[in-house]
Amino acid sequence: MGKKNRAKQSGKPGGAMLRHKKELVKMAADLFKLCVMSPSTQDEWEYYLKVHTAVENFSQKQKNVSDPPVVQPIDRTTAIPKFKSWLKEHGVEYSAIDIQEVSEEEGFGVIALQDIEIKCPLVTIPRKAMMTYEDAKSSYLAGLIEGNEVLSVMPNVCLALYLHCERFTLNSKYQPYIDMIPQEFNTILYFKPHEMKYLKGTAALSVAINQFKSIVRQFALLYQVFNGSHQKEDVEKLPLQARNAFTFDTYRWCASAVTTRQNKIPTHLDENSTLALIPMWDMFNHAIGPLSTAYNALTRGIECLAMQDFKTGEQVKICYGARTNSDLLIHNGFVMKESPFDKVRIHLGVSQKDPLYSLKAKLLEKLNVEVSGQFAVCSMDNSLPTSPQLLVFLRVFHMNEEELRSWLEKQKNELSSLREIYISGEVKFKSDVKVWEFLENRVKLLLMGFKKIGDNIEEMMEDKSLTHRSKLALQFRIEEHRILSACV
Ligand SMILES: C[S@@+](CC[C@H](N)C(=O)[O-])C[C@H]1O[C@@H](n2cnc3c(N)ncnc32)[C@H](O)[C@@H]1O
């Protein structure tokens, strides 16, 4: 963006301006310090409120003193023709599909212009139409990325920053693409405390708070870099309008655009992958199905095929992969009902005070299972309510010394039966009963946490006064409750 007619110019000259700028840098440093902290589970809600208030105070002060340029709203429907011409110029090929607003919930999407058979090509996108981490690294951001220890190891932050800069660059070559990206998202970065509160008691709350904290921390760091003296020369290479427009609101926008639309593609130099925003491919919404997008090394482009048959006029969707609802809600801003990919992660670990700790840790290591970490309770569509790792962990966790020593004596390939639901021979059925009882109690405890919000969630979903984001959090609760109840 960055066009003078679309972005308001600003400026308060003189010493007062300089003083305010210093105050903002100091506030950003405090914000950064706050976001380095790791609160305990009991304190995480209060901590989240503190971070939320601090970033709001920062934004208010920034608005009052420097009046940053803002993006004027663009109607996405009217942006479509320019976007389509841009796609054509950049060699993007598609003939059986079109872009359209599909629903309030899903926003824009892709529809079939004719009957499409499974495995028919939908779209091919050459590398030159994409915006990648490699592009960011070879742009005006090169020096800043190379000289900054955070940016140099975080491709997603670099891509977000590049998108931010191009959004505020006059006549950016990406402008028709950027204009097709939604102006707001439903990722966790946009949730207000009164919406986030519906995640209380779910396994997603800690992850959501952590994600919010990380993005605020990145923003606070980058604000200091943009306004400090450390990398001044590198910063001055960035478009001026982009530097002036850098606020928490613009940063959460580009961070969300990246988390909702990014994909990995191989780099041209080697087999390693790089992050990319892929115009047109990122107009497809998600449905459960097989993966149907691949990178063609010969044409150096993305090829996307139909994952199933589609009728004329029907919405054409692709599968984003086996993502849990926690990932979808936090990073993509939506929830899938009754998804076979869904899982609830629970934290478990062997205590270092356990007299059998070292034997258990040794056996778990041999089995490639963590001694402490997040383990998944799976959707009821799976034959087991646990991931193989959780089952193995719980079995080892409940073994006595004799059992541990006997399993430790075995070769690695003889340990595979610990991953199977029925173990014949030496492990007694009795000890597996302890395993399932432990899991049952643990899951029942988690389910008790759901009572805090109330039992009438379905009724709340009908409440017209609740925001869409509140309902997303409530839908997430319903899905998590379903998985845990099925496990019990
Ligand atoms: C790659 S974009 C797809 C295009 C997007 N709908 C748009 O308007 O630009 C991914 C975003 O689309 C929305 N989305 C995708 N699949 C969805 C689904 N099954 N249900 C609800 N929203 C969905 C979510 O907002 C998600 O973050």
UniProtKB/TrEMBL annotation:
Cellular localisation: Cytoplasm
Sorted UniProt keywords: Actin-binding, Cytoplasm, Methyltransferase, S-adenosyl-L-methionine, Transferase
InterPro entries: Rubisco_LSMT_subst-bd, Rubisco_LSMT_subst-bd_sf, SET_dom, SET_dom_sf, SETD3, SETD3_SET, SETD3_SETD6_MTase
GO MF terms held by the record: actin binding; histone H3K36 methyltransferase activity; histone H3K4 methyltransferase activity; protein-L-histidine N-tele-methyltransferase activity; transcription coactivator activity
UniProt cross-references to PANTHER family, sorted A to Z: ACTIN-HISTIDINE N-METHYLTRANSFERASE, UNCHARACTERIZED PUTATIVE METHYLTRANSFERASE
GO biological process: methylation; positive regulation of transcription by RNA polymerase II; regulation of uterine smooth muscle contraction
Stated family: Belongs to the class V-like SAM-binding methyltransferase superfamily. SETD3 actin-histidine methyltransferase family.
GO CC term (a single one): cytoplasm
UniProt catalytic activity: L-histidyl-[protein] + S-adenosyl-L-methionine = N(tele)-methyl-L-histidyl-[protein] + S-adenosyl-L-homocysteine + H(+)
Protein name: protein-histidine N-methyltransferase
Regions crossing the membrane: none
All residue ranges annotated as the SET domain in the record: 90-321
Predominant subcellular localization, coarse grouping: cytoplasm
Enzyme Commission designation: 2.1.1.85
